[in-house]
Model the fold of this input.
Amino acid sequence: MKAIKQKWDAISERWTLAALFGTLLKWIVLGGGVGILAGTASAIFLKGLDYVTNVRMEHPWLLFFLPLGGALVSYLYFKFGKNSAKGNNLILEQIHDGKETIPLRMAPLVLFGTIITHLFGGSAGREGTAVQMGGSLAEWFGKLLKVNPVDRKILLICGISGGFGSIFGTPLAGTIFGLEVLAIGLISHEALIPAFIASFVGNVVTSSVWGVSHAHYSIGEVPALSAVVILKVIAASILFGFASILFSELTHALKKGYSLLFKNPMVKSAVGGLVIIGLVYLLGTRDYLGLGLPLIQDSFDGEVSPFAFLGKLVFTSLTLGAGFQGGEVTPLFAIGATLGHTLAGVLQLYAPFLAGLGFIAVFCGATNTPIACFLMGIELFGADAAIYLFIACIVSYLFSGHTGIYSSQQIGVSKSQRIRIQQGSTLAAAKEMRKQRQSNDEARE
Done:
């Protein structure tokens, strides 16, 4: 009997190894396929984005077409978009047992819509576009191969990771972002290997195959580790968390406000474009249009206005609130970097150093992804400031509370035991519950 048991154990072990190798091979093929699609889409998008940005800079009068461009994109979404208008939230919902389909049309719609936003001067980013393209292409790829429901969810996570990693040139951050953004406080390791393969392949395809380069910044000299510097970093990171709350809540409020005032989405976007034009001439500057890359660069090696972070925050919230297409992350980088540069003078810290911390910390607070943001900091700025980067991320994450730019992001674990929130509820549902409690408290008084 002992000999039989040993033989059976040996056979079982071989079958186990075969299953593991089969799983690895399967996700190399599937994750790599999504990475190729996402990386190619990101490359096309980044090349197009560079082109239209240069055109806009050479022809400032294009700003006057922003209302028309916004109305056109809103019409296309109204006529052909169907549920594509949900954007990133649609992808998150489908990973969380959603019953809808992510249409392939989402990819060209968001690509065209974001290009139009940047051609005419809207203040928006690129992450949302990359994630939506990656998600819709992953959905199409899964349908083509007729994958089962479990593998479909993993492929959608691959789409998020592949899009994020390829658009910013940060494959490690892209991997964890796709896992971490789903639910606050929880990371699903089930998709760890597929997400890494998709993010890594996507980045290689974008940079090596298509020759697209990514911007990198230097934080320069990192201060020696000391209690004083740590306290200053914590203080700045609390403000970074508050800035992320302001951005998220203002953007959501403007989306709701614009929709209440203007039932027609084309009119809503046209009016939003007029508001942006009015602000440009009221403030006498175009610094807050587009991605905000010059603002980021100046935060590291130049000078920026003390309130530049607020200008970029307001312009981006107004643009996205009016229904223009584009992401939030690159503007969040600009908000964080300029705020860090401003705080450097107050806290007596090296400006590029604090700009680098703000760069990732405001983004972290708005997306509730501290590990991904920490890894992004390492990939962009190096490991010398690792301790400070980590402190900035976790403090901003905590002080941003249960808010964020993705209303369909679930709350897996509350950020504080003192804050009672139903596990599995979304940020949108948690917000409504807070409002209801406040109303009940006021009624009792």
About this structure: The longest strand covers residues 183-184.
